[in-house]
Amino acid sequence: MYQAPRGTQDILPQEQAWWRYTEQKAVEISQLYGYSRIDTPIFENTGLFVRSIGDATDIVDKEIYTFDDKGGGSLTLRPEGTAPVCRAYLEHGLSNQPKPVKLYYLASIFRYDRPQAGRYRQHHQFGYEAIGDDNPILDAEVIEMAWHFFLSLGLNKLSLQLNSIGCKKCRPEYLITLRKYFSKQASSLCSDCKTRLKKNSLRLLDCKKLRCQQLASLAPRSIDFLCPECKKHFNQLKNYLEQLKLPFTANHCLVRGLDYYTRTVFEVGPQDGNAQDTIGGGGRYDDLILELGGKPTPAVGFATGLERIILNLKKQKAAAPPLPKPKVFIAHVGNTAQDEGAKLASKLRRIGIGVLQASGPKSLKAQLRQANSLGVRYTVIIGEQELKTASVILRDMISARQKIISIHQLEDKLK
To answer: What is the CATH number of the domain that holds 362?
Structure first.
């Protein structure tokens, strides 16, 4: 038997309520903050991600799904959402719109990662980007929007981690100091971190191995190396978050996993969780659009995995509203009654009443059991006598009471 590929999942009917609920809240919060939806292709030119994410990141080194197309080009399944949005921003001249340009997406993301709870090789992201404004009040709004989104879903006991990793002016000095510190600890680093020490030293702070985390906790802090502009930006952001009454914790080990981040980085997760339990995160990427061939354009954004959200909703025993379903079941006695039932079902559906219909030679008792198991409110029964008198039996499945009514009255009764 074939099975779903490792790291993927089938989202079965009984799970759909969680997904529709989460997506609906994502759309509602985006509209509330003035974001418009954008959808980009699931694959892009490989160079887009190498240039934006960084060729020394774990994502590009180990996790991207890349293939050659028949035209000889190299394409990559989308491993994150920000770079494609920025590519579309440049390609379609969205820079001519009033700033900031606010865009959100709901998209499948593909990474060859070790599958674990809430993390799949194909997963689904809700993300949003605010492009064209470097004011820290926009960073605060992006963070507040994420916080607001999680609370609206019913998630609670959350923690907000915050850091600033500086800009291309002040970060080089910090990276030199960071490499010196970790070079002295090289023998204690994991194999991945020994590679990061040479290729991408900022990611040394992001390792999930306990020993490396212990070393990172004592490492030099990026906030101690910020230039005056970055320091002012970070202090203003913290002030805005305090005014918005958003509780945050400064975490000097927070760097995020993509090379394009500048200044603000943040993550949201459960209070009692660890780094692997992060629900969502984001930050500022003021140099990315310039790297992709555009003009210098500040931007800030956020992304969260729907699988992680649903996992945490279930952990907190939150409830997803049930999806709407038909409230009427049509049962029949005899083939002629079945034919008339099909006509009636079609008529009711055309006026917006959801209907399920029994089929085949089941007994009336079996049909009523089926209606009960489907959770419908009313069953319409048609038999030989009802055909003769142009009537139906309308049965309330909760009270088990039923009455005979004219078929011409049925529509108004059900409405």
So the answer is: 3.40.50.800
- When divided into structural domains, the chain yields a total of 2
Nearest partner of 160 among 177, 174, 176, 143, judged by Cα: 143
Q: Are 131 and 100 in contact (CB under 8 A)?
A: yes
- Regarding whether 155 and 46 lie in a shared domain, the answer is yes
| Element spanning 169, H or E | none
**Nearest Cα to Cα of residue 243 among 376, 143, 126:** 143
Q: Name the nearest CA neighbour of 358 among 380, 327, 386, 389.
A: 380
Token digits for 139? 């960073």
> How many Å apart are CA 364 and CA 288, to the nearest integer?
66
Residue 193 lies in a domain: no
> What is the number of residues in the chain?
415
Quick: pLDDT tens for 15-66. 999 999 999 999 999 999 999 999 999 999 999 988 877 655 566 667 889 9
pLDDT at 274: 61
What's the pTM? 0.87
Sheet holding 74-77, edge to edge: 43-45, 74-77, 66-68
User: What pLDDT is attached to residue 309?
Assistant: 94
Q: Same structural domain for residues 305 and 347?
A: no
Is residue 33 in a domain? yes
Gap between the Cα atoms of 84 and 88, Å rounded: 6
**Cβ contacts of residue 41 below 8 Å, gap of 6+?**
78, 84
Q: Where are the beta strands (DSSP E) in 139-292?
A: 158-164, 249-250, 262-270, 280-284
Q: Helix, strand or coil for residue 184?
A: coil
- How far, in Å, CA of 255 to CA of 21, rounded? 31
Structural domain harbouring 259: 13-170+226-315
Nearest Cα residue to 230 out of 130, 99, 294, 139: 139
Instruction: pLDDT band for 276, please (50, 70, 90 cuts).
Output: low
- pLDDT classification of 232: cutoffs 50, 70, 90: very high
Are 45 and 164 found together in one domain? yes
Q: Positive or negative, the Cα torsion across 334, 335, 339, 342?
A: positive
Structural element, H or E, at residue 126: strand 122-131
Report yes or no on 371 lying in a domain: yes
Answer yes or no: are the C-beta atoms of 380 and 393 closer than 8 Å. Answer: yes
Tokens describing residue 70: 């028949």
- For residue range 362-399, what is the model confidence (pLDDT) as tens digits? 899 999 999 999 999 999 999 999 999 999 999 999 99
